[in-house]
Specification:
The complex is a heterodimer of chains A (529) and B (831). Chain A has helices at 7-11, 45-57, 75-82, 97-100, 119-122, 134-137, 140-146, 172-177, 186-198, 213-225, 227-234, 252-265, 281-289, 304-311, 345-356, 367-377, 398-409, 411-420, 438-441, 444-455, 467-470, 485-489, 501-523, and strands spanning 18-20, 32-39, 62-69, 89-93, 104-106, 109-111, 147-150, 153-156, 159-160, 166-171, 202-204, 295-301, 319-322, 379-380, 387-390, 457-458. Chain A is an alpha/beta fold. Chain A has two domains: 7-163 and 383-442, Periplasmic binding protein-like II (D-Maltodextrin-Binding Protein, domain 2); 166-342, 3-Layer(aba) Sandwich (D-Maltodextrin-Binding Protein, domain 2), CATH 3.40.190. In chain A, the strands form five sheets. Chain A has a six-stranded mixed beta sheet with strand order 1-3-2-4-15-9. A four-stranded mixed beta sheet of chain A has the order 11-12-10-13. In chain A, helix 10 packs across helix 11, helix 10 (213-225) packs antiparallel against helix 12 (252-265) and helix 15 (345-356) crosses helix 16 (367-377). Chain A is globular. With 831 residues, chain B is α+β, with helices and mostly antiparallel strands. In chain B, 22% of the residues lie in helices and 30% in strands. In chain B, helix 5 packs parallel to helix 6. Chain B has 16 helices and 44 strands. In chain B, the strands form twelve sheets. In chain B, strands 31, 33, 34, 36, 39, 43 and 44 form a seven-stranded antiparallel beta sheet that branches. In chain B, strands 1-3-7-5-6 form a five-stranded antiparallel beta sheet. Chain B is globular, with a radius of gyration of 29 Å. The chains are: A alpha/beta (529), B alpha+beta (831).
Chain lengths: 529, 831
């Protein structure tokens, strides 16, 4: 069935920016490859440049690109479900797990999945890469993250377009000028914050309206519990082994994480920028970039590089992304005891230094503990599997679309991407640090980020794949209703929303317990599994 | 029998871009050949459905007096149809009594293109595509040339039959004629009118009519047009439209109320509230006083009045807390002032007892006008809200139902209501276009079962499209979603009518969904009417306990719903209706009622009551009765094992009445004192024998936060407590006495013995208060046992380890508790 173009949506101005890479211009041309992309932190210049590169190989192909700003990408799936779109590739910020798991009828035709099955495509030879297959080139952990098992077969439906990396940014100049140590543990981090405050600096900045503190929640919970336990969490298992019960939110690591965040956010410590409530995300970024604001640290992502490149001279900025400090209470999970006492934080820091130096053991620390801490040290928050491209199953230009995606992941495509994004990378095998095109495009900050993300394990690897999360809306970090963590921790004790870490932990469990039947019904899962 | 699950198949129509009213691009000669099938009126059939539960080409309808019920025909075109028409004809009883053509309405279903599923609705039976909703009268359809069917497509016809309250009971038959181009088809019709009048509406309803929205659809938002909508909703669909027409014409308000007062469908009207609760005007007092001061002992105006002062208040917002408190105070204050004024004016002087007269007390009670707030949060708002109206899914568990009913019991004039809107979505009942119709009808059976007083629906006539920029024009006949929450659509939410304007009609057109709501109201009326009869019979026969229609219909309820989840098998609903109606007729005509109880030696005693002079037959055997009160009483003892069903016939006043009841299985009793070896408790807790059953010493367990939250104090009844498999359990009842000082919530589950199944699948959640005893009733237990992903081994009663203090947002361990659990009584699921 011929799909109807939603010209009216385009004309309504809900999508911003329209640039056609082809000669024929935009519009309903049956021979034009239609691409719609999110235009957020990483921008879309990479896509325009990629299209130019592709056209050099295929001058006969017209490409039309529409960019959706900010939260407009939420409409991508509406378009997909309507069946009335001519878009052939969406580059989105959405893992699409729920769509992978259910079929749907569109225009009278039922599809097992509304997005194209790319499993065979992943195994096909890439003509732009000397025949190398995506399945062999993609990072194995990312392949696992984007795959969905159906009837015992691992299938792929999406192609990641960026290697996402988030963590705690710090202003290197401020740290150096004030003799601040890059913290190794959360206790250490809070000591550094206290030290910074005492020196008239602002330890942390965030935009409460658009907060990335959730990054730290996922990192620290995963560090505390370990990746193996978290695999169970993300599959909906509770600590006691049952499934799809509200106790899935009762993992001790969640409380331990809240304890740390409480110390960061609470008014009595005064570590957060006093303007966090008013700052937009872009403004908060400015506060960490520009040292005149005296801000030391901010949870953020590597896309900040674009902001820096666009608005600052290289000599004016000196940011780093630290390895997320290890949550200090992890010592309770270790075998190590000194008598009956846990490992001290001082000793923990020494072990971490040893890990960072490439050591494989530490005197007095068991192999299990050392491996545990190594795993924690090399855990990073990354939503690579949520920054993906997909093809509507009813697209009539699937072959061209797939060919374009092959081009994107090729060495040539990766060079274009890195250059256009000021040093961002993609999760495919490539020698970014030594390539003659990509290496010069990456400043020290981006090289650090790359080193970190390419050698670490993602905290939220399976995040959201299970229908409890993908469809039911259960989250590890934040609430869908009721009081949020920021509202609980960052306010005066007299405010009605104020809660301690323990209180917020208990409150969240009760909140979900009261709604659990509805959540499971929405998710289409059975309580008890 | 299939439950209406449909399978979409590619049809030849896919080559064409045909719509319900358009011409196919692949034209074939129109000769009118159609496949004709009948279907339950509760089954919505999409335009391209090819596989659905259907019957022969006839119409069979059963209805009570004072009821409207529909039959559905589905025409599937075998070649383009250029013009079709279904023509009604006289239906008659054997004695020639006619049903009346005026009581027959033939409607053509119009299809609307659902382009996007309602957000959160994963009902695969109704995917995107052309779905029937609007009902257009046959004559209008012909007038506008819309009586065409494209090749391969369905065309549904909804034929409504209305029996007046004085209609003669019996089976009316006749033949309608269907013409389709060159073809003529004869459609046999049978309409059975049950001999019971259900024209009186029970319960309360509040349906929002948006006067401003009338301009978008009707080009007319006058008071007259509002009244047209109000009257149509009330008279055709037995639902009350919130505000009365011309509510703000205070001088004529009493006359307006009077004009509707005797309408049997008129159960509810809304009183206006101040524009600002912080700068009070006298509107609350004025309307209350007007109605109170004009009330008489036989006409208490305020009995039908409600306030609706706030919609969906958000919890945890200081300004909302403040406002809710002000509303509560202002309304109570107005009520108090009205009473004081009446007393000061010696209003009750002419009545025996004056201020303490029966009338005065009744009037004072009626001043407690329910103040409805659409909120489920009784734990948060408490007494700040007078009458809770949560979304329907909040009535799913016993514990929630207890909370709302307790609040009602503790609130003067309090009621409990429920509503639907964007939420919930399937599989809870909804009125979304891409969802089942039967859900909204069965929902009214749950209303009766759970003793809910009223139902609210927020808007029947959204005729514009709401956008961020404001309301914009929309295709009122073709756009299924009138607003987008974020970017998500909710098909059909906010409108149940379609404007008459587009077809030059003075009244709006209804929809399948509105019909289902009306039919649900009428089912509710039937249940309540039967209860009235039972109340009457209890007095007549001097019964110790008044029978409850909920007990009589318990088996049917179990088939129709669990919690608020409804069956999707239409035949179950109509079977339940017929069974209910026959019992109601017998009660009404023959003063007949029967019940069964456990008898001696494992037998069952059936007790029958009937009018003096009636003959009662039980499975063909004529029974001998004894005088009982004003009638007769018959007792028959039998063994359930020897019978398949109860076939009852009553001959009374020359009429013969008959019905069959499924044999509910006998209740079996498990003497728990003999089963201790298969009853176990969680770590630290103990089970021991007591005089009447088992004593459970329930012990909580500490540890770190995770350990405290995950520990489950519980008692497990092994499968050998029962003489049947857990997967065969229909109903399980037991008594639990809480001797501790803490109120304890607990969930009954069916669990297994693996780590994954040890928590199990919930049956229901209850609350037993400190120092109190609770009769626990679990229904459809087999469903939980069957749903367990493993072998069910125990019926587990599980308690919370920690209690949450909302004032401090902290959890602490429950103190040790002693609970006494008495014998378990259970039934086996019927085959």
């Amino acid at each position: 069935m011929k799909t109807k173009k939603i010209v009216s949506l385009l004309l309504a101005g809900t999508l911003t920016g329209s640039l056609c890479a082809g000669l024929a211009g935009c519009g309903d041309d049956a021979d034009t490859l239609q691409i719609t992309s999110l235009n957020a932190g990483y921008g879309v210049q990479w896509l325009y440049d990629l299209a130019e590169g592709y056209k050099a190989h295929h001058p006969e192909v017209e490409i039309s690109i529409e960019a959706a700003a900010g939260n407009e990408d939420k409409k991508f799936t509406d378009q997909l479900e309507s069946g009335e779109t001519d878009v052939d590739i969406y580059f989105a910020r959405d893992a699409m797990y729920d769509y992978m798991q259910r079929g749907q009828s569109v225009g009278g035709t039922y599809y097992d999945c509304l997005i194209e099955d790319l499993t065979d495509f992943f195994k096909s030879e890439n003509p732009y890469d000397n025949g190398k297959k995506i399945v062999d080139k993609i990072r194995p952990d990312i392949l696992e993250a984007i795959s969905m098992e159906k009837d015992g077969v691992s299938k792929q439906y999406t192609v990641p377009w960026v290697q996402d990396a988030l963590g705690i940014l710090y202003n290197k100049d401020i740290f150096a000028e004030n003799n601040l140590e890059v913290p190794l543990t959360t206790d250490h981090m809070l000591e550094v914050a206290s030290d910074a405050k005492g020196k008239g600096l602002i330890p942390f900045v965030d935009s409460y309206a658009d907060s990335y503190l959730t990054v730290l929640v996922e990192d620290w919970v995963t560090q505390y519990e370990g990746h193996e336990v978290m695999e169970g969490f993300w599959a909906g298992y509770t600590p006691s082994g049952t499934r799809y019960e509200p106790e899935v939110l009762s993992y001790q690591g969640i409380l331990e994480t809240y304890e740390v965040l409480y110390q960061m956010l609470c008014t009595e410590n005064g570590f957060m920028d006093s303007e966090c409530n008013e700052l937009t995300f872009t403004e908060a970024q400015t506060h960490i970039i520009d040292k005149s604001y005296k801000v030391c640290m901010q949870p953020n992502g590597a896309w900040i590089q674009r902001e820096m490149e666009a608005n600052y001279d290289a000599s004016q900025v000196n940011l780093g992304m630290m390895k997320t400090p290890i949550i200090s209470s992890i010592v309770e999970k270790l075998e190590y005891r000194n008598g009956t006492a846990y490992m001290t934080d001082s000793m923990l820091r020494e072990v971490i230094k040893a890990i960072d130096n490439g050591q494989t053991s530490y005197d007095g620390v068991s192999a299990n503990d050392f491996n545990r801490l190594s795993e924690a040290r090399n855990t990073v928050y990354s939503w690579t599997f949520g920054h993906i491209g997909y093809i509507p199953v009813y697209s009539d230009k699937k072959d061209v679309a797939k060919d374009f995606l092959h081009y994107m992941v090729s060495d040539e495509g990766q060079r274009i991407f890195t250059k256009a994004t000021y040093g961002c990378t993609q999760p495919y095998e490539f020698d970014y640090l030594n390539d003659s095109v990509t290496a010069p495009a990456m400043n020290e900050f981006m090289k650090d980020v790359y080193k970190r993300v390419s050698t670490s394990k993602t905290a939220s690897m399976e995040g959201g794949k299970d229908p409890l999360f993908a469809i039911g809306g259960v989250t590890l970090a934040y609430n869908w209703t009721g009081t949020t963590m920021i509202q609980a921790f960052s306010v005066a004790h007299t405010e009605p929303t104020y809660m301690t870490a323990q209180g917020f932990y208990d409150y969240r469990i009760k909140l979900y317990r009261d709604q659990w039947d509805t959540i499971c019904t929405t998710a289409g899962v059975k309580r008890g599994g | 029998m299939k439950n209406g699950k449909r399978v979409l198949a590619l049809s030849t129509a896919l080559f064409c871009t045909a719509s319900a009213i358009g011409l196919s691009a692949c034209k074939k000669e129109a000769d009118g050949s159609v496949q004709i099938r009948s279907a339950y009126s509760t089954l919505k059939i999409m335009q391209s459905d090819t596989d659905f539960v259907s019957g022969d080409a006839n119409i069979n309808v059963q209805l009570a007096k004072g009821e409207t019920e529909s039959g559905q025909l589905i025409l599937t075109a075998q070649g383009d149809v250029g013009a079709f028409e279904l023509i009604e004809s006289d239906l008659s009883l054997a004695d020639g009594t006619k049903f009346g053509l005026d009581n027959i309405d033939i409607n053509v279903q119009k299809y609307i293109n659902v382009r996007q599923k309602t957000s959160g609705n994963r009902n695969e039976a109704y995917p995107t595509g052309y779905t029937p909703d609007m009902l257009l009268p046959m004559a209008t359809c012909i007038e506008y040339g819309e009586n065409k069917i494209a090749d391969g497509q369905n065309q549904g016809l909804t034929v409504e039959f209305t029996a007046g309250k004085d209609a003669k009971a019996g089976v009316y038959t006749g033949t309608f004629t269907l013409k389709a181009d060159k073809q003529t088809y004869q459609i046999p019709v049978s309409v059975e009118v049950w001999d019971i009048d259900i024209s009186k509406c029970y319960g309360k309803t509040w349906f929002g009519i948006e006067q401003g929205q009338l301009l978008w659809g009707e080009m007319d938002n006058s008071d007259e047009m509002y009244k047209t909508y109000y009257d149509t909703l009330l008279n055709e669909y037995k639902s009350c439209g919130g505000m009365l027409p011309n509510t703000y014409d205070f001088d004529n308000f009493l006359a307006t109320v009077d004009s509707y007062w005797d309408n049997p469908n008129f159960t509810t009207f809304e009183l206006p509230t101040p524009k600002s609760w912080y700068t009070m005007d006298s509107v609350l007092f004025d309307y209350l006083y007007l109605l109170a001061s004009n009330s008489t002992p036989v006409k208490l105006y305020l009995e039908k009045a409600v306030f609706y002062p706030f919609d969906e208040p958000q919890v945890g917002k200081e300004e909302v807390d403040d406002r809710m408190g002000v509303i509560s105070l202002q309304i109570q204050s107005a009520k108090d002032q009205v009473w004081e004024k009446l007393v000061s004016e010696d209003f009750f002087a002419e009545y025996d007892g004056g201020v303490n007269s029966e009338f005065a007390l009744a009037l004072k009670e009626s001043l407690n006008v329910p103040s409805i707030v659409t909120s489920p949060d009784v734990d948060y708002w408490g007494d700040t809200i007078h009458t809770y109206c949560p979304p329907v899914q909040y009535y799913e568990t016993a514990i929630n139902r207890l909370k709302y009913s307790e609040h009602r019991a503790n609130t003067p004039g309090g009621e409990q209501w429920f509503y639907t809107c964007m939420q919930p979505q399937y599989p809870y009942p909804s009125h979304h276009i891409d969802d089942y119709l039967i859900g909204s009808r069965v929902m009214r059976w749950t209303q009766k079962a759970y003793d809910i007083d009223g139902y609210l629906y927020w808007a029947v006539n959204l005729y514009s499209l709401a956008t961020d920029a404001g309301n914009t024009p929309t295709d009122v006949y073709g756009e299924p979603s009138r607003f987008y929450y974020g970017s998500q659509s909710f098909n059909g939410d906010g409108f149940l009518f379609y404007p008459g304007k587009g077809y030059n009609s003075k009244t709006p057109f209804g929809s399948l969904r509105l019909d289902a709501l009306r039919d649900g109201q009428e089912d509710y009326n039937l249940l309540c009417t039967y209860q009235d009869e039972l109340d009457r019979l209890a007095v007549k026969y001097g019964m110790e306990k008044t029978p409850s229609v909920d007990d009589v219909m318990a088996l049917a309820y179990g088939d129709l719903f669990t919690g608020v989840y409804y069956t999707t098998d239409d035949s179950v609903l109509f079977k339940a209706r017929e069974n209910l109606a026959k019992k109601a007729v017998l009660a009404h005509k023959a003063d007949f009622y029967y019940e069964t109880n456990a008898g001696a030696n494992g037998n069952t005693d059936a007790t029958f009551y009937a009018k003096a002079g009636a003959d009662v037959y039980f499975n063909g055997e004529k029974l001998t009765g004894a005088v009982c009160g004003d009638g007769l009483k018959f007792i028959k003892s039998f063994s359930v094992a020897s019978l398949n069903s109860l076939d009852i016939k009553v001959v009374c006043d020359g009429q013969e009445y008959a019905f069959s009841d499924s044999l509910g299985e006998s209740e079996m009793i498990s003497d728990l004192t003999t089963k201790l070896s298969v009853i176990s408790a969680s770590e630290g807790s103990e089970v021991s024998a007591s005089e009447d059953g088992v004593s459970l010493k329930l012990v909580s367990k500490g540890g770190n936060a995770q350990e405290m939250q995950n520990f489950v104090p519980r008692v497990d009844f092994g499968k050998d407590v029962f003489s049947i498999a857990l997967t065969e359990l229909q109903t399980v009842k037991f008594t639990i006495q809480n001797t501790s000082s803490d109120t304890r919530d607990f969930t009954v589950r069916i669990a297994g013995n693996t780590p994954q199944t040890k928590l199990g699948i919930a049956v229901d959640t209850f609350r037993v208060k400190a120092g109190e005893t609770l009769e626990v009733v679990c229904t459809n237990v087999y469903k939980s046992a069957s749903a367990l992903n493993g072998t069910p081994t125990v019926l587990s009663v599980q308690f919370s380890n920690v209690k949450f203090d909302e004032s401090t947002n902290t959890s602490s361990l429950y103190a040790d508790a002693v609970l006494l659990i008495s014998n378990i009584v259970y039934t086996k699921r019927s085959a």
